[in-house]
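Good day; I would like, with your permission, to put a structural problem before you. The record follows directly beneath this note:
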Amino acid sequence: MDIDNKQFQGIQQKLAPQLIQSLRILHLPTADLTQLIQQELEINPLLEIDEDVDLDLAQEEPEAEQATDEQNEEPLEELEFDEPDLDTLDTDLFDEQDWDHYLNESGYASPREEFDPNIEDWRNDSASEKTLRDSLLEQLALTDLSPSERIIAEYLIGNIDEDGFFEGTLGEVAEILGVERDKVDRVLGVIQTFDPIGVGTRNLKECLLIQLKAKNITNGLVATVVREHLDDWINRRFGQIALALNANLDEMRAVEEVLSSLNPKPNIEPEPAVNLNHLIPDLEVQKVGDEYVVSLMDRTLPELRVSSIYRRLLGQSDESAGTAEKETKKFVVDKLNSARWFINAIHQRRATMLKVMRCIVENQVQFFDRGPGFLKPMVLQEVADQVQMHISTISRVSNGKYVQTPQGVYELKYFFDSGISRYDGNDIAAKSIKEKIATLIRDEDPKRPLSDQRISDILKKEGIKIARRTVAKYRDQLNINSARLRKAL
């Protein structure tokens, strides 16, 4: 086999490391950006928190607002980064005035949105949310099981899924642990007495029967329906059940009342008084007078500036230091450029988010005025063209970031959706159609639920062109059962 050396010319497009991290900063939500800032503060000695930012902004408020507006006009792609030139690092050339020039350039202290000082930051100081497994292990510690039984119990708990059902078979557990199956069965019975009621059951029937037992309902019509006719009940075949059990309508309604109070998934709990999984909005839209005002909710971000501590280091003239002095200055200039870039990248992120959100508000005024049912179709390219940015930039801004609006909290990508034609020529967003379908089903007579065709006819009367199969598709996406399965007694 011959090996030849060949030369060829080619052009490759590579992103600079600074630009890659700049795109990463743009993609990060505010909570994650806070962590990134803390990491950058630890590794870059020239970057520090500006403790005097409130005083500075109070003294120079008009100039700060003007500078912020000018920065908001800079596109992300215009960020430039200086490479350190060793030839300019000579002590005779790089003096204190040069350092002042580096430090006094505009845009080093990160600007801050004004906010109401009377509004306190919400902080979640409570412990992290307890998992189902943690809860079961705590209850296990209170039992009088033997050490060998506790080993079995811990193994069984490890095989309980997030819905509270036990996965696997008792025979497999007995074989793996080398114990008798009856012993595994007894231990599982103990776990099934834990909270939430029904945990550790192997199927829906067992789950419902245990919940009925907790209500002292072990016999009668309800228990019989669960034991012998659960599949018919799920599929709403009430006539067959009534005929098989010789039950009248009132008795069937009593069964429905009891079964509707049971939990089909053991681990579904009522919503706690305090929700520990709060979303932290990155933006806020408020109506002031007749206009909507967009603001950033990033007041928890530390304000950054370039440290002046290293001024003396670069201002010193020590010819005896030689190469070591020059390399030290090179390190400082590298970190200086990194700090400058990092602060500017945060500026660009803020400006880009505000520009995109303001464009969304301008295009979706009806949504902010009247609610989700009036969302207009809008695509990423449409916003990209209006704000003169690349579509990938709009995508990064809209993913994973949330906005607090008068209609609630929404992810920015919620506002981008395809449309369906109306008879009047105006398109309507698919999400608005789904909202209308959900509202119609929510307000329907449960004894006479609306069919997909009936919903299609109602929407057509409102001027919306939609076929029955499209209604069925949207209903499935909303996790809503068909009319037959929604029918009540």
